[in-house]
Design goal:
With 425 residues, this protein is mostly beta strands. It contains no helices and 38 strands. It comes from Usitatibacter palustris.
């Protein structure tokens, strides 16, 4: 196999220009295609010098290549629904090149990354493989690209590719390979696909593709013919036991992911399970095999979820909270609030003196919102009856870590409600 250095996933002023072919294209022109890689962002359009070049591109999808005059061009990304411009940049497009522009980030903080395509053609019966990361929410990743799914003694083909970067192509024999992505420097698998045939002469870019979870990734396979989104076959779950007087086992499709959990306990780490349609159950630990509550739930690929046992032992229920474990900025903590106190029909939440949630219903949680952290400051969390000044519970003196994600839980009983602050990431 043959390696070819590193290339940033940015505008490339390229010594590779001689390798970029003009064949089949207009003279003094460049080609562009667009990948939508922002979970939670509606369909987008991309304009080059105010001329629409990609329209209605939805998350996980890719547009066709479009051709326009090379040179410095103004590029806008806007929402398809209302035309709001969410990114505007002046970018350089080199004559004779093809570029994939990935729209990345978060719905309220969108960016673009440029990936130069087709500057290296593999030899006969060979393929070219490289790794790019569009996953702002994860640490750098390694790529294992082999004939076996067992990587225990394997060495990554490509290592340490972080957000906004790509490796150069590596040339290999054509064949059938298993794509595995791990947290860089570890064997912690973040993505694994079924074996796939890679035909001779193909240029293949494997993109670590973002999800809302904090430990797994999806993927996209880019070739010159298009792109294929590959959903992660895995998701991650953890538990919270909010049923007074209970000790519970939690199961997904009959397989336990937590045993002997006591009231007010919340897992601080996740267990990997199959994504897709799952049957979630709980059972009393002293009566294993007999479910006392069941919930059918689709677990999104690469997503994080908290499975919560709620209500009472006489009427147990399951609910699932989707965990948005997105890395916040280094100056803030992301916090959400969960109401699992049976007698609290709805609550308001105040942090120090600032309102953070109103009318939060029983068996529900807010979305995560940022708290900007101040030096040497602790935080007081107060839950009140909705629309009143009646305090249900208060927890003072809580220190929050920067760039962390938390859930603040309100548990029962009525005689002594409990607030627990649990770090999710």
């Amino acid at each position: 196999m043959k390696k070819f250095g590193w290339l940033g996933l940015v505008v490339v002023a390229c010594a590779l220009l001689a390798a970029c072919s003009n064949e089949g294209r207009n003279q003094n022109s460049a080609d562009l295609r667009v990948v939508h890689a922002v979970p939670g962002l509606d369909a987008i359009d991309v304009l080059v010098n105010d001329d629409p070049k990609a329209s209605g591109v939805t998350y996980t999808n890719i547009s066709e290549f479009t051709n326009f005059k090379a040179g410095s061009r103004n590029v806008k990304v806007r929402t398809s629904a209302n035309g709001t411009v969410i990114v505007e940049r002046d970018l350089a497009f080199i004559d004779g090149t093809r570029t994939t522009m990935l729209v990345v980030g978060f719905p309220n903080a969108v960016a673009t990354l440029q990936l130069l395509d087709d500057y290296f053609s593999p030899r006969n019966n060979k393929i070219a493989v490289r790794l790019a990361s569009a996953t702002i929410n994860l640490l750098p990743v390694d790529l294992y690209f082999g004939t076996s799914a067992d990587i225990s003694n394997a060495t990554p083909l490509i290592g340490g590719v972080g957000f906004g970067n790509t490796s150069q192509y590596i040339e290999m024999d054509e064949g059938t390979y298993t794509v595995i992505l791990t947290e860089s420097g570890t064997k912690n698998i973040m993505f694994q696909a079924a074996p796939r045939a890679f035909g001779g002469g193909s240029e293949n870019t494997i993109v670590s593709f973002p999800a809302n979870g904090g430990g797994l990734t999806n993927a996209m396979l880019l070739t010159m013919d298009g792109g294929t989104f590959v959903a992660n076959p895995l998701a991650r779950v953890k538990y919270a036991n909010a049923i007074l007087g209970s000790t519970l086992n939690f199961r997904a499709n009959g397989v336990a992911f937590a045993n002997d959990t006591v009231y007010t306990s919340v897992a601080t780490s996740y267990t990997t399970v199959a994504s897709g349609a799952r049957t979630l159950t709980i059972e009393s630990s002293n009566v294993p095999g007999t479910s006392i509550a069941t919930l059918a739930k689709t677990l999104d690929a690469a997503g994080d979820f908290t499975v919560v046992a709620v209500n009472t032992l006489a009427a147990p229920e399951l609910v699932v909270f989707t965990d948005a474990n997105i890395f916040p900025a280094t100056t803030v903590a992301n916090v959400r609030y969960a109401n699992v106190l049976p007698s609290a029909a709805a609550v308001d939440v105040v942090v120090n003196t600032e309102s953070k949630a109103t009318n939060l219903a029983f068996k529900s949680a807010t979305v995560t919102t940022p708290i900007t952290l101040a030096a040497d400051t602790t935080y007081t969390f107060t839950f009140k009856r909705a629309g009143t000044e009646t305090v249900i519970a208060t927890l003072a003196g809580v220190a929050l870590e920067p760039a962390a994600v938390y859930t603040v839980w309100l548990f029962g009983p009525d005689s002594g409600p409990i607030i627990r602050v649990v770090r999710d990431r």
